[in-house]
Design a protein that fits this description.
Layout (H helix, E strand, L loop, with lengths): L2 H17 L4 E4 L12 E6 L2 E6 L6 H22 L19 E5 L5 E6 L6 E5 L8
Antiparallel strand pairs: 1-2, 2-3, 4-5, 5-6
Helix pairs in contact: 1-2
Bound molecules: zinc ion.
C-alpha cells in the first residue's frame, strides 16, 4: 500500500475499532496500485464499506481529515442500515446527542481533529486517531 495512504488510514481505522462496536478492516485486494490513479483501498465496515483514497502528494493532515470524513459517513450509514441509527463519533460534551465534525486544527501544530461546533466556534474533542482516550 502507498505510504501516504497507509499513514492516513491508520488513525481513522483506530478510531472505528476503538470507539465503535463495528468491525472494520482494509481490503487491498481490489486496489490496483499501478493504475496511475491516486492510491485507494476499500475501507470495510462490517460487510459493506467505502472506497477511500488520498492524493499521494497532498498534505498529510488533509489526507487524514478527508478519509475521516468519508469513513464517518460510512459508519453512520452502517448504523442506520443495521437499524440502530446514532451519531458517530458522538459528542461527549453534549450527552452523545450529536456527531463530531472533522476539522484541521492549527494549534499547537496542524492536525486532523474531531471537533464540536454546537456552541459556536470549534472545540476540539480529540485528535483523529485518539477517540479511545475519551473513554
Ligand atoms: Zn458537542
Amino acid at each position: 500500500m502507498h505510504d501516504a495512504l497507509r499513514a492516513a488510514l491508520e488513525p481513522v481505522l483506530r478510531d472505528v475499532r476503538e470507539a465503535s462496536d463495528l468491525t472494520a478492516d482494509i481490503d487491498e485486494s481490489l486496489a490496483d496500485p499501478d493504475d496511475g490513479e491516486q492510491p485507494w483501498v476499500w475501507f470495510r465496515i462490517l460487510r459493506a464499506g467505502t472506497r477511500v483514497g488520498v492524493d499521494p502528494w497532498g498534505v498529510p493532515v488533509e489526507n487524514v481529515a478527508g478519509i475521516a470524513e468519508e469513513v464517518q459517513d460510512a459508519v453512520i450509514e452502517t448504523y442506520g442500515d443495521r437499524g440502530t441509527p446514532r451519531p458517530w463519533p458522538a459528542c461527549p460534551l453534549h450527552q452523545q446527542k450529536h456527531k463530531l465534525l472533522v476539522a484541521i486544527v492549527e494549534d499547537p501544530a496542524p492536525h486532523a481533529a474531531w471537533v464540536c461546533t454546537r456552541e459556536g466556534g470549534q472545540r476540539e474533542v480529540s485528535e483523529v486517531g485518539g477517540l479511545s482516550g475519551l473513554r
